[in-house]
């Protein structure tokens, strides 16, 4: 890349204004990609449980391509339209809901379920163009924004440490029937590798090595390959499979909507809307706070552009054959590396597109190699708690609930919901009801209605 090209890129993305440079942005994009690349394998496995039951043949290769393309569309749109280093991909949790609750639980055909996601995306585009989604971000109290950022930090650290050893995860946090969770076994080689990776990555980080998280991931993966703990890549290049059996099914599937399934369709649509809306808003608020984008007015600049990118990605993802696409919390890894502009997202988006040709290499990066990076990003994001007014219990209680519930419910949306309900109540108990904006009361009421609806409809709230 010539110096003239570098200058054009720097001017377009505003490197000087954001205090960054080309090398930093490239490293940040690589780091974010490495921490979210697992979705290229995990998402097809989860969605495959819904689609393989209805479709002859193994569609894993097509689902992997659909995952990469839909993520790239969202990420590149975020980069070029909103100029943020946020990367997108089909969301974890919502893909499980798609498969196990909507298709297998409610009995909705997978094509119609994709149609539900497509309609959700169109509704989100409309909500964004009418400024509703930005107003929701604005209505989140500052204390909850800070708590969401710290909660996301705990969440991604928990994701990293609790990965299943059977699939290359760290396994340092495991399920326990008595204590709910417990420390994993050090007899597991993956657990030892995760610890080694944490030491290696921490050493890079405290020495202020540029690209510390990325080098930590690569060093841990290579060490695991050398020791035979995880298999080295069996190849480099693989010709991708175009998702011909998936493409367009999200639109065509709407023809299957009828009187017998419309109630279940609307139920699923409501949940898709809620989870995607508040996962995205929570991620943008939390990660945006960590990156320093959110000012004293509590607003995220260019919020509607960021939200529109997310909505377009969900709509495009349904067309290509995957569940809702959302802004990934792993974007915090790139921000921790210094990424501050859309060029970070450009790098990540291009790598998502290129990944369809290099699946053997990316499949060989074990989860225990990315776990240390997620833990250390969690450490960095905990600094958000310093912005919470802990001495004011009306601020501290809802903030703590958000901070505590996000990782334990495994959901940004659930944690933010509980904090949002608590905030106006404790403020009212404090005698400061008038300090709470009307929009905050309305959103809290919506959360209460949502919990009631989900309890009645599914017998649970997630």
Give the helices and strands, then pairings.
Blueprint: H1 3-13, H2 15-18, H3 22-36, H4 39-51, H5 60-82, E1 88-90, H6 94-103, H7 110-129, H8 132-139, H9 142-161, E2 173-176, E3 180-183, H10 189-206, H11 212-226, H12 249-252, H13 262-291, H14 303-320, E4 325-327, H15 331-336, H16 342-355, H17 359-363, H18 367-381, H19 393-409, H20 412-429, H21 438-458
Antiparallel strand pairs: 1-4, 2-3
Helix pairs in contact: 3-16, 4-5, 4-6, 5-14, 5-16, 7-13, 7-14, 9-13, 9-18, 9-19, 9-20, 10-11, 10-18, 11-18, 13-20, 19-20, 20-21
Q: Give the count of structural domains.
A: 1
Provide the β-strand percentage band.
under 5%
Tally the helices: 21
Parts with pLDDT < 50 across at least 5 consecutive residues: none
Output the structural class.
Answer: mainly alpha
Which range best describes the helical content: under 10%, 10-25%, 25-40%, 40-55%, 55-70% or over 70%? 55-70%
Shape: globular
Average pLDDT over all residues: 85
Strand line-up across the major sheet: 1-4
The largest β sheet comes out as:
2 strands, antiparallel
- Cα(first) to Cα(last) distance is 48 Å
Rg calculated over all Cα atoms: 21 Å
The string of secondary-structure elements, in order, is HHHHHEHHHHEEHHHHHEHHHHHHH
The overall strand count is 4
């Amino acid at each position: 890349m010539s110096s003239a090209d570098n200058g054009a890129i720097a001017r377009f993305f505003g490197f000087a204004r954001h205090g960054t440079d080309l090398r930093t942005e490239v490293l940040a994009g690589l780091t974010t990609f490495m921490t979210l690349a697992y979705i290229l394998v995990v998402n097809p496995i989860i969605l495959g449980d819904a689609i393989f039951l209805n479709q002859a043949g193994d569609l894993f290769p097509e689902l992997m391509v659909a995952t990469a393309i839909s993520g790239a569309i969202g990420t590149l749109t975020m980069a070029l339209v909103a100029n943020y280093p946020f990367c997108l991909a089909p969301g974890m949790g919502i893909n499980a809901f798609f498969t196990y609750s909507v298709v297998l639980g409610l009995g909705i055909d997978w094509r119609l379920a994709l149609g539900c996601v497509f309609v959700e995306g169109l509704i989100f585009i409309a909500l964004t163009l009418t400024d509703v989604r930005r107003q929701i971000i604005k209505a989140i109290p500052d204390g909850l924004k800070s708590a969401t950022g710290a909660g996301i930090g705990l969440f991604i650290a928990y994701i990293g440490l609790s990965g299943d050893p059977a699939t290359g995860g760290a396994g340092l946090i495991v399920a326990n029937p008595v204590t709910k969770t417990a420390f994993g076994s050090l007899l597991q080689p993956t657990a030892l590798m995760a610890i080694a990776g944490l030491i290696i990555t921490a050493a890079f980080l405290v020495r202020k090595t540029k690209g510390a998280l990325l080098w930590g991931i690569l060093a841990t993966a290579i060490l695991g390959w050398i020791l035979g703990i995880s298999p080295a890549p069996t190849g480099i290049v693989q010709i991708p499979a175009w998702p011909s059996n998936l493409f367009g099914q999200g639109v065509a599937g709407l023809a299957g909507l009828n009187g017998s399934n419309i109630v279940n369709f609307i139920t699923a649509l409501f949940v898709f809307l809620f989870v995607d809306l508040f996962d995205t808003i929570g991620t943008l608020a939390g990660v945006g706070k960590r990156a320093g984008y959110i000012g004293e007015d509590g607003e995220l600049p260019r919020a509607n552009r960021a939200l529109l990118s997310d909505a377009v990605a969900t709509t495009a993802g349904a067309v290509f054959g995957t569940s809702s696409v959302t802004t990934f919390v792993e974007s915090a890894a790139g921000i921790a590396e210094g990424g501050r502009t859309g060029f970070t997202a450009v790098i990540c988006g291009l790598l998502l597109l290129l990944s369809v040709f290099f699946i053997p290499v990316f499949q060989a990066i074990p989860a225990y190699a990315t776990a240390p990076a997620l833990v250390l990003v969690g450490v960095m994001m905990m600094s958000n708690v310093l912005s919470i007014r802990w001495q004011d219990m009306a601020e501290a209680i809802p903030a703590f609930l958000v901070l505590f519930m996000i990782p334990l419910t495994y959901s940004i949306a659930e944690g933010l919901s509980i904090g949002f309900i608590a905030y106006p109540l404790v403020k009212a108990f404090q005698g400061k009801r008038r300090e709470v904006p009307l929009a905050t009361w309305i959103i809290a009421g919506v959360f209460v209605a949502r919990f009631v609806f989900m309890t009645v409809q599914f017998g649970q709230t997630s």
